Amino acid sequence: MSFSRRTFLRGTSLGLGYLAVSSPMPGWLGNAAAATLSGYAGYRATVCVFLLGGNDTNNVLVPRDSTGHAQYLDARSTLGIPLAELRPISPVNMAAGAYGLHPSLQKLQALFEQERAAFVCNVGPLTLPMRKADYESGAVPRPDNLFSHSDQQDAWASGISNPSTVDLPAALEGKATGWGGRTADRLHTLNPGDYPEVTSFGGKALYTTGAERQAMMVSSSGILEMKQTSDADFNTLRTEALADVVALHNNVTLEASYGGVFTTAQTFSAARAAARDAAWNALPLATREHIDGLFTAPQGVTGWTLHTQLYQVVRDLIAGAAPSASGGLGVRRQMFSVGLGGFDTHVGQEATQNALLLQVDFALDAFQQAMTRLKTEGLFGVNPPQATLFTMSDFGRTLAENSDKGSDHGWGSHAIVLGDRVQGRRLHGTFPSLDLSSGAASNPDSVDAKGRWLPSLSVDQYGFTLATWLGLGGVADRDHAFPNLTNYVAAATSGGFPAAARAYRIPFLLSDP
Q1: Which of 305, 329, 308, 5 is nearest to 197 (CA)?
Q2: Model confidence at 23: pLDDT above 70
């Protein structure tokens, strides 16, 4: 049995036919509404980096002014980073060196100053905009099981923090979906054939799940195929036997559906493998060696995984952006998901977070440098591929440290966005007040004495900004991908919230010409 990329792209495989005609099971096929190329006819991708466990962004982005830094150290006598050790950054329209980054983030510091990176401050799950008094009185519903790992990961991934209060469109009723997958439902028409819009190497699976479209789930090593042995005859026999088994369904719809799904997965796997090899080999040797070098871990480092995942994203991205005439997939829009765990730092945070952020710093820089190199390659014509990388995490952590030299579960946090189309060297949104004196009684940004930030921007706004950059357009598409956003903005407007809360999008991406 063999599968050709051309056959796959034209949608003529037997597996696709089975799936489209007879399958009641979730598949990659589905009816999608119209989307647009968002002012850019070339290839675009978003890359979600999920920092699992709750990254302490209070130590990622720190004020360096005398008042702010003193308040920070008052809450963190052990975890606080001395002023001299912070890596200074100079956000636009702020004093030089107004903020500093964690010492492990040397490469991110450079990317920020080069206007390739930015922060989205105090963003988190919200059903409706909320003031501290609303939180205390319960007048506005809080996210379900606030401060719980699993629930808040789901809230970030789904964009639906309190499902019982959100009026879901009929297409989403009874389905567990994420805002990445729901965006894929609507972007499907921008790509030829039925290749999945989302590929996941890690992170949070819910983020990638649509009501109609499903993600391609790949191991962090990039492998999506049966492991080959050294015996070619055995490999052939195994493939033929598997094909025979999958074809047996005895007129049972469920068995036929399984066979269709499995055959489709094989088809996508073969198409992906062929396109990855063809597009990669179409690049100059010097470019391939340069990219390989970027993702080679520093000498003596072991156990890192994030750079490996992002390397595989780059390989898939090249295959997706390369035209079909050059052996690529020739798609226009893709989304990727990767993840890194270990950020639940209740105990001994300093050493753990130092090591994790070194890994993040290396991987994000390697990805951005690879994308910069690809801009110069003729393989992609006059429109080189564009990618925006962004971070998500369960929640931020308490500004006040605990007795175990760690920090506890928080709420709002600061996200990193990275890419050539990012409105860089900026802090988007509002950095919270760090004043915890008198139990933070006069601090409107903290819901308690420990410094848990009440988000001033919602996950819905964050995700919608990325989705519209990819091409999501129209009210129907917006309400499908972000069913809570219209009510959120309406409540912010009627409630007299600041302009940022009343906007559908956060301006961290440059407008198309």
Answers
A1: 329
A2: no
Q: How far apart are CA 144 and CA 83, in angstroms?
A: 37
Among 49-58, 130-139, 210-219, 476-485, name the one with the lowest average pLDDT: 210-219
Distances (CA, A) of 334 to 190, 257, 313, 507: 10, 26, 10, 21
Q: In sequence order, which residues have a C-beta less than 8 Å from that of residue 198 and are 6 or more positions away? A: 180, 181, 184, 208, 210, 213, 215, 216, 334, 335, 336, 337
Q: Output phi, psi for 63, to 5 deg.
A: -70, 145
Alpha carbon 444 to chain centroid, angstroms: 29
Other Cβ atoms closer than 10 A to 389:
24
Cα–Cα distance for residue pair 49/338, rounded to 1 Å: 5
pTM attached to this predicted model:
0.89
Torsion sign over Cα 326, 331, 332, 334: negative
DSSP states of 282-314: HS-HHHHHHHHHHTSPPTT--S--HHHHHHHHH
Query: Would you mind telling me the total number of residues written for the chain in this entry?
Result: 513
Spatial neighbors of 442 by CB under 8 A, at least 6 apart, are 435
Instruction: Calculate the alpha carbon distances from 426 to 87, 93, 509 in Å.
Output: 15, 8, 11
Q: Which DSSP string corresponds to 348-389? A: SHHHHHHHHHHHHHHHHHHHHHHHHHHTT-GGGTTS--EEEE
Q: Give the containing element (helix H, strand E) for 494.
A: helix 485-494
3-state SS, 496-512, equals: CCCHHHHCCCCCCECCC
Exposed/middle/buried for 426, CB within 10 Å: 0-12, 13-18, 19+?
Answer: buried
The 8-class DSSP code of residue 1 comes to -
Question: How much of the chain, in percent, has pLDDT values that exceed 90?
Answer: 78
Bridge partners (DSSP) of residue 339 are 50
How many helices, marked H, and strands, marked E, lie in the chain?
15, 12
Q: Which residues pair with 388 in a beta bridge?
A: 46
The pLDDT value given to residue 8: 32
Q: For the segment 308-340, what is each residue's pLDDT rounded down to a tens digit? A: 999 999 999 999 999 999 999 999 999 999 999
Distance CA 397, CA 446 (A): 12
- List, in sequence order, the alpha helices (H) in 77-229: 106-113, 132-137, 149-158, 179-187
d(Cα 125, Cα 140) in Å, to the nearest integer? 13
